[in-house]
Amino acid sequence: MVPVAGSAYTYAYATVGELVAWIIGWDLILEYALSVATVAVGWSGYFVSSGPRRRASSSPPSLAGRRRGLFNLPAAVDRARLSPALLVIGIKAVG
Where along the chain do its domains lie? Predict the structure, then answer.
C-alpha cells in the first residue's frame, strides 16, 4: 500500500522496487544539491556586487572581463550556514 503523502522514493519503492527507489533517492539528493548550489552562487553574486567597488586592475585586456578564482567563499559560507537551519526547520515541521 502506497501512503497518500509520500515522496517519489516512497512511490518507486512501493511500485517498482528497492533498486529503482535507491536510484531515484540519489537522483533527488543530487538534484537538491545542484539547485541549492545554484541559488548560493546567485546570492554570492548579489553579496559581492553590493560591496564596495574595486578600482580597475592593471591586468592584460584578455583577462580584464574574466573572473579569477577557484572557490566561491561567500556561496560556501552561505550554504554551510543555511543548510543546517533549513534541515532543522524541515525536521520540526514533519515531526
Answer: 8-50+70-94
